[in-house]
Design a protein that fits this description.
single chain; Arp2/3 complex 21 kDa subunit ARPC3; 2% strand; two-stranded antiparallel sheet; disordered N terminus; mainly alpha; 8 helices; 2 strands
Length: 214
């Protein structure tokens, strides 16, 4: 017999893409591209430091794992066909053969990991899980893919490449804090931005407070 006091309704996971989803993907692809307009600067003449990782973090945390990854894929596809959407006006297939190629691939995987953690179990995003998600997916995963590829392309030892890549860490942590603050604010002020139903905690069900449904 099911204990109705502790049973929660899981959100639907089978909803197909619609025009609104595609529009949101396009918006976040544009955000990632726009964050590259200020340009970036390189350290040790290799991978540029840019603000675009913030857009990747927000895409995964707000759109969820699959739409977030799709928005990043759209940007990278446009870059591959020649549009100069990466920081510094970079574009074309050549960027996927250079030192930053692994980081770009890491954006896609990172967006998936961010979305899975931030929305784990279909629950409402909270500060600690959002920060854990953007740090894990937006920093650790991106580094885990980007550093070995950078080492391979530049022919520098992996340990040396990892050490020099630490210069990215302070800026990426600042971006993680900003992304967490933005997501937390949206949850409270505009939950429709997430376009999903959230599983209620058992305690909340006793209070008869409805979960926001976009």
């Amino acid at each position: 017999m099911t204990d109705t006091a502790t049973t929660v309704a899981a959100p639907s996971r089978t909803r197909s893409l619609d025009a609104t989803d595609l529009a949101r993907v396009a918006v976040f692809a544009a955000i990632i591209a726009v964050l590259g307009l200020p340009g970036g600067f390189t350290v040790f003449g290799s991978v540029p430091i840019t603000a675009q990782t913030l857009g990747v973090m927000l895409a995964g945390a707000i759109l969820g794992p699959w739409l977030g990854a799709l928005s990043v894929t759209v940007v990278l596809t446009l870059v591959a066909v020649g549009l100069p959407l990466l920081a510094g006006g970079r574009g074309g297939v050549a960027v996927f053969l250079g030192p930053s190629a692994g980081y770009l691939l890491g954006w896609i995987v990172g967006a998936i990991v961010i979305g899975l953690i931030v929305h784990a179990g279909g629950r409402r995003p909270v500060i600690w899980r959002t920060f854990a998600g953007v740090v894990t997916g937006g920093i650790l995963v991106v580094y885990a893919i980007g550093i070995p590829v950078q080492s391979l392309v530049t022919r520098l030892p992996l340990a040396e490449t990892a050490l020099t890549s630490l210069v990215f860490l302070p800026g990426d942590l600042v971006k993680a804090v900003l992304a967490t603050a933005i997501v937390t604010t949206l949850v409270k002020a505009y939950p429709r931005a997430f376009r999903r139903e959230w599983v209620q905690r058992p305690a909340a069900r006793n209070a008869a407070t409805p979960t926001p449904v976009p």
